[in-house]
Known about the structure:
Residues 1-25 form the signal peptide. The chain is α/β, with parallel strands linked by helices. 34% of the residues lie in helices and 15% in strands. The chain has helices spanning 9-20, 26-43, 90-94, 122-127, 144-151, 163-166, 196-200, 202-209, 213-237, 261-269, 289-299, 319-325, 335-338, 360-363, 365-376, 416-422, and strands at residues 62-66, 70-75, 80-86, 102-107, 112-114, 133-136, 156-157, 172-174, 185-187, 244-251, 254-257, 273-274, 284-285, 304-307, 342-344, 388-389. α2 runs antiparallel to α16 (416-422), α8 packs antiparallel against α9 (213-237) and α9 packs parallel to α15. It is elongated and about 70 Å long. The site of one 2-acetamido-2-deoxy-beta-D-glucopyranose has 4 residues, from α1.
Amino acid sequence: MAVACNCRCCLQGVLLWAALWPALSPWTTVALAAAAVPAKLKAAPAPVVAGPVSRVEDARMFQIYYGQSFKVIKNSGDGKSYLLMQNTSKMASKTKYCTGRIKSFVIPLANFSVDTTASPVSFFELLGVLENLKGITSNQVASECVLQSYTSGNTQLVNRTDAQTLSQFSAQFISNIDEDKGCNFAAYVPLEEDTPLQRAEWIKYLGTFTNSEDRANAVYDAIKRNYLCLSKAAANLSTRFKPIVAWIEYTQGMWTFVKESYALQYITDAGAEIVDATITNKRFNSSDSEDMDNFHAILCTVDVVIDQTYALEPAEYKLSTFLENINVSHDSCFSFVSNRSIWRFDKRIGASGTLDWYDGAISQPQLVLGDLIEVFFPTGNYTAIYFRNLAKEHVRTHGAYNPALPMMNPDEHKDFSSLLADSGN
Ligand SMILES: *[C@@H]1O[C@H](CO)[C@@H](O)[C@H](O)[C@H]1NC(C)=O
Ligand SMILES: *[C@@H]1O[C@H](CO)[C@@H](O)[C@H](O)[C@H]1NC(C)=O
Ligand SMILES: *[C@@H]1O[C@H](CO)[C@@H](O)[C@H](O)[C@H]1NC(C)=O
Ligand SMILES: *[C@@H]1O[C@H](CO)[C@@H](O)[C@H](O)[C@H]1NC(C)=O
Ligand SMILES: *[C@@H]1O[C@H](CO)[C@@H](O)[C@H](O)[C@H]1NC(C)=O
Ligand SMILES: *[C@@H]1O[C@H](CO)[C@@H](O)[C@H](O)[C@H]1NC(C)=O
Ligand SMILES: *[C@@H]1O[C@H](CO)[C@@H](O)[C@H](O)[C@H]1NC(C)=O
Ligand SMILES: *[C@@H]1O[C@H](CO)[C@@H](O)[C@H](O)[C@H]1NC(C)=O
């Protein structure tokens, strides 16, 4: 293989922060958590369930129930229940549901496809089930490993509107629930959750389809522990006055403050504070000087700007682009300009030009949190994975992963816990 994938993605975040806060020792914490999982499961009493189980801890949008040879997932995203029957059960050969409220699947899925135009595929990578990913609806994916699977012919490109072709897969996973076009369509909606951890816990939902509960639990435990550990450390770094952050976006001539709750949660968890919502509940017209005066007045109170304005060519979006859009000059006295703290989440880009922010960052929020802590409390000792500082533009490799950045490889990811253990030294 030409591209060597390195799966120590989440581990880099953990490792670096471990170096910064040795007292926290997240390494040992994480490794213990992963190792503890099977023992905990064995100790669990009834019900009599054949295999490992996942329990939802944080996510709001789904629930999992276990029977002896089946599972039921209730998905509040599409209001459906998914009956998953073990392929060894009698039920599997006799039962088929496909109604507005219930669908059945035989598991473990022999194969599946994913609507990669709208759904993160990194969850499947973390689960280590890319071998069975046989179809994708777009090859504009950030994941190098999925692209490899496509190039090698293991995964085919399929037409996302062609229900006939899609019906050949044991399941077609979609995130856009309006595009349910068949009995084999299964919705997963991590983006409808409120917090970064809730979004990441959808790995458990997907894990039930492939009987990968052990793996899903271990991955989520490691991510959650690391995330909470970073968040604790960040809380300790905060002084009485936290850095104030404006997370903003420019669309169709109007500036707005981003309101998505997951974004606000990231800011809080990284020890900073978002500009008061009561004064940001407004759109600012960039050609209206009164609006811009009001906008500038708010920005004057801000230490850090995160600009999530869409750019067709991320590399072409420069400091000058931003300053032009907000009608501010280089020598302005805004503290985020003089202190050079203007960030975008477009640093990690796949070979196809797709931002990994919309994929890998969803399944591994601890990496984003690590970045944000460095953004708010700079040490200069940590290389951000997702965030790029427009005001201190480094040379970027466009159109390809920066080889220094970590990548995930399902083959190397088979045993998450041993990986955690052997990276600890
Ligand atoms: C059930 O699935 C497993 C794993 O894919 C496979 O090895 C086995 O042959 C299947 N059994 C039946 C009865 O289909
Ligand atoms: C995809 O499938 C739809 C419906 O079968 C068809 O109308 C359309 O032309 C196909 N698109 C491509 C690019 O093949
Ligand atoms: C997926 O698996 C099913 C069941 O084994 C099989 O009938 C089907 O041909 C497979 N589809 C693809 C696209 O490999
Ligand atoms: C927070 O700071 C206190 C005092 O400096 C220290 O004892 C504690 O271990 C720190 N906790 C974390 C999570 O960093
Ligand atoms: C923005 O302001 C300009 C000039 O006042 C006006 O022509 C334009 O319609 C406004 N745009 C919006 C979206 O309101
Ligand atoms: C942009 O800034 C210039 C120079 O400060 C000012 O003259 C102009 O009115 C501003 N435009 C808007 C729409 O605020
Ligand atoms: C600029 O950043 C430094 C260190 O990051 C901080 O101490 C200082 O308060 C900041 N200044 C302003 C005006 O925000
Ligand atoms: C930067 O990282 C190195 C190696 O991890 C460590 O030895 C050093 O103390 C760190 N420096 C700061 C300022 O945190």
